[in-house]
Amino acid sequence: MSVLDRPRVEEPVPEVGAPPRLKRGWAVGATIFVWLGGWALLRGTATLELGGAELTGFHQWLNGVRDDFDAARDTSFFFQYVIGGISTAIDTVVTFFQELLSQPAFPRPVPEIGWLGVVALLTWLAYALAAWRSALLVFVSLLLFGSLGYWTDSIDLLIVTAVAVAICVVIGLPTGIWMARSKRATAALTPVLDLMQTMPAFAYLAPLALFFGIGPASAVVTTLIYALPPLVRITAHGIRTVAPTTLEASRSLGTTDVQALRKVQLPMAKRTIIVGVNQCMMAALSMATIAALINGPGLGQPVAQALQSLDIGSAFVSGIAIVIMAIMLDRTTTAASQRAEKEARAGRAGGRRRWVVLGAGGAVALVLVYVSRTYLWAAEFPERPDLGTPLSDGVTQLTDWLVTTLENVTNSLKDLVTYALINPLESLLADTPWWLMGLVILAFAYLLGGWRPTAISAVCLLVILGTGLWNETMKTLTTTLVATLIVILSALVVGVWMGRNHRADTAIRPLLDALQTIPPFVYLVPALALFSTSRFTAIVAAVAYGVPIATKLIADGIRGVSPTSVEAARAAGTTAWQMISKVQLPMARAAVVLASNQGLLYVLSMVVIGGLVGGGGLGYLVVAGFSQAQLFGKGLAAGIAITALGIMLDRIAQYAAARYGRA
Amino acid sequence: MGRHRSGPVRLAALAVLAGLALAGCGGGDIESAPTGGGGGEECGEFDIAINPWVGYEASAHVVGYVASSRLGCDVEYKNVKEEVAWQGMGNDEIDVVIENWGHDDLKKKYIEDQGIAQEAGSTGNVGIIGWYVPPWMAEEYPDITDWKNLNKYADMFQTSESGDKGQLLDGDPSFVTNDEALVKNLDLNYEVVYAGSEAALIQAFRQAEANKEPLIGYFYEPQWFMAEVPLVKVDLPPYKPGCDADPEKVACDYPEYDLDKIVATDFAKSGSPAYDLVKNFQWTNDDQNVVAKYIAADGMDPEEAAEKWVEANQDKVDAWLK
Asked: Which residues form a coiled coil (chain B) (predicted)?
């Protein structure tokens, strides 16, 4: 999700004097020629390869900084009282809700409010905030959590997410408002937000655990770092886009700044802000499994455990529970925002009937809460009906069968892609001397986007050199490019089909919508089951994550091609293939370019997660840095390299999209 | 009153929630059930780190089961890797690491320098780390168990992941390993590839033996899987004390580890009966393998597996509780 969902405000202007197309073709050809020639002659020299256990001075320095912090945490006022205070506060709040809703409240063997009460309360809350449809969704989802066998973990995740999102709103709203009203704040905060979103969480997980402890506080802070930027950005965007005429009108009536903000800008931006909260919530869920590695409570725990013991059945079932929670939260917040808008327009909340239902529902919920405190059957989620065990067994059997039956197919597919695509490309990128490779990248940046991305790329490449991980970065670039290529090809095939065929669109679109709500970690489960650990496995997971968004963008682009052009072409007697290649795709070029850009960024955000299933390169180093004390500095450096690589690719793609999407 | 326009619904929701929270504190009717056999002393919360291998899980759950059933402790298992577990002793989040493999660097940092942790004696388990091949290979290529011959066989171990080098399969990135340095310093034409977890290593060795496929990889004992497939260890240059001091320059075999218990200093001073249990806890590699097999091969819940072993070995357990 990283840099993706931010509304792209500034559109880069195509540079003056960009090379004309024909010349550019020659330049690309020449660059590739020089590259291949250099690779053939100098292969394996100056590759800056660093052995697995080797550290550079920079890595050791980072280790030293970590050790200093580690030693200071017992003596420093700041760590003991400020950081300590924050983490105690968060832990206390989370523990309070856990004992209220999910965990045994010692010495009681069960939580204060049992499952029946929790179901009744949350269903009622969904009705109060949204509508009966959402209430029904929440009701069914909660029962599913229980019968899948993950009641406690699900409610824990809900609590951690709620606390993280609440803090997010408290910090994010004012920050967003500030950014909307001050250009200087925007300029200062944008790079910080970029960093927060692109820096892989794994890289700072261990130091966080050092300061905030193992458990809820660290989980909440980790989530916060990742989930805050979308909320801030979307809030700022929402307030900025309130029509200036409206603001003018209110100002001419003599409202003060604060009044204008409270009475005009905030209410009008409300819908956008709720979208921000929704994005923040989804980001929080996608961090669940990562937070589990520092014992953060919630559904991430069983997923991480099951991946560890290769228990695909359990990983699948707990993954499904996360997906259900994502859908439940996504749809409920969306419905709540629609309701907020409707109320704002109609001026009055609901009718009398709604009040009656609310009151009665509240009373029923209260009774059920009382019951759940009194009777054990209403306090502990019943073991039957048990959907989890049969589902998990079924999935295990199915994967066992699939893996044994398809072993030859999956292995040959894996070997084919690895030998034919990944290994040659990796050799081309990683075995070329670093100075030549750097020049090639800069040349491509210039040819694709002009001078500005070239300058940015130069800075990013210097940073990567500074991390001492050039070779590993090139390996990561390889898997990223291969995955992006596969994403674009599959998105083109499916997207064109959907764009041309209405029935295909109605059938596939809901599936893509659902896939987009799935937290990226869940994609590892089937990929791991089918291909065990390898770079290809990581690529498969990244592709699965990137395809939905790219496909939807291309389908929308094809659909948006003017019907008259299509009609005219059809009248001229073009074949279906000609129609696609000569009319629809060229006219939908902007969408294709945007889809490639988004596909690339989604793939890039899977680099570290891919490191968990054999992705290699920087992703693995980040994972290893989290696991081995002496590799911490190297892991953090790898995190920095990933961020630099991401910013470089993002900028090149952005400028290229602005140039080619427009023509 | 514009600003209260959509407020009442939310206000009502808040009021009800607040009321519930209050009601929640009022005291319930479900009897507070005693968690265990109700030992005399006060135990309270007992936090055990769980590191990601089954043998560790076996030891941790046996100790945890005894602590909760005999001493009435409120046992919490925390799933964290080794480094993070050591860190957690500083802020009262981890009380014990029940099976520690060497980690002289961490001992220096947290025991000597910071004093937040201390040693609590051997578990009685002997730990061995090394490179192993499936038994069929040791039979077919008897000289493969000497590291000097490994380059001769490197081609056999090529995979799509290791390219033109032989593949040396490692486990979880958090495990104690010198393999990357060993490959480099012994000039071996191999590449370390990570399987990702103990389970993945076991699966790979099992398949290699069943299909008579070549495989060489990192593995360790105590290990229940050795009973199913007796892997054969490859001899690396013999270990001498100090030869593994610099992680970048290691060129010798792993030492034989006396697996020991590490406890948080605060926990040791707390007078908790759980501390005495941890200190007295000792068993053999065979004991651990039994419980580990219950968990990994028989699919038992770790707590049930611990219970089964404890029921069958009351005498050993009683000795820990003296």
From this structure: none
Return the SS3 of A232: helix
Residues of B in contact with A535 (CB under 8 A): 161
**Conformation bin of residue A317: beta by default, left when phi > 0, alpha when psi is -120 to 50:** alpha
Q: What is the pLDDT of residues A459-494, one digit of tens each?
A: 999 999 999 999 999 999 999 999 999 999 999 999
A70 touches chain B (CB under 8 A): yes
CB A533 within 8 A of CB A590: no
Q: Which of residues 375-394 of A touch B (CB under 8 A)?
A: 375-376, 379
Contact across the interface for A349 and B5, Cβ inside 8 Å: yes
Token pair, residue A144, equals: 């599913």
Q: Note whether A215 contacts B91, CB cutoff 8 Å.
A: no
Chain B CB within 8 Å of residue A505 CB: no
All domains of chain A, ordered by start, with CATH?
21-42+406-660 (1.10.3720.10), 74-100+157-313 (1.10.3720.10)
Instruction: Classify the complex by whether its ipTM is higher than 0.90, answering yes or no.
Output: no
- Tell which of B1, B3, B10, B16 to mutate to test the A interface (max A CBs under 10 Å): B16
Both tokens of A223, joined, read: 């989530």
Cβ atoms of A293 and A304 within 8 Å: the answer is yes
Instruction: Say whether residue A295 is in contact with chain B using an 8 A CB cutoff.
Output: yes
Examine residue B248 and state whether it is found in any structural domain, yes or no: no
The per-residue b/e assignment along B183-221, b for 16 or more CB within 10 angstroms, e otherwise, is: bbbbebbbbbbbbbbbbbbbebbeebbeeeebbbbbbbb
Q: B101: domain range?
A: 45-125+259-320
Query: Phi-psi bin for B142: left (phi > 0), alpha (psi -120 to 50), beta?
Result: alpha
Q: Note the pTM of the prediction, 2 decimals.
A: 0.82
The reply to whether residue A369 touches residue B20, judged by beta carbons under 8 angstroms, is yes
Q: Is A348 on the interface with B (CB under 8 A)?
A: yes
